[in-house]
């Protein structure tokens, strides 16, 4: 069961899943050829700077953007549930994402990127966009999650901050994915004021990279 509320340029849809009620904020494109679905991490929501920027920029390039709030977030909880519950929520949301009949890029930031990687092949995703992939917990490189990324099984783009404590670009293994570095960026792609790249430039680097990559997907 879904419920849709439309406002200028966007539509909000609630979706019932086995993990609870999820919410999708749609940013439509006039001549959409792809849907990019992106969810948030374990410590934030869809107001993250990268998710907002993608929703603002990509529709003009033929990519509809769906910013997805997992059920735990919609319910107002502070802590994300176990990975299997996140995956269940994503599976439940997927039919609504696929309903327009377009190829769907499964994406997310941090924990959301892990969900996208774990479920991509099963759900038939066209590709995966991993924003700030948490390669390991901060300070614990031995607890690698590289297997999730390497097992995505579809074209994958990783966008990673140069100073991300969850995994710097040089820590990533070789594999079947592309990686774009945001210089000086932390896990949320914030850059320090002393950096020789501004915050706006850092965000533009992300959106430019995703525009180019989605263009290569057809």
TrEMBL record:
A GO MF term: hydrolase activity
All residue ranges annotated as the KANL3/Tex30 alpha/beta hydrolase-like domain in the record: 32-213
InterPro entries for the chain: AB_hydrolase_fold (IPR029058), KANL3/Tex30_Abhydrolase (IPR046879), NSL3/Tex30 (IPR026555)
Alphabetized UniProt keyword annotations: Hydrolase
Name of protein: Alpha/beta family hydrolase
Organism annotation: Streptomyces iakyrus
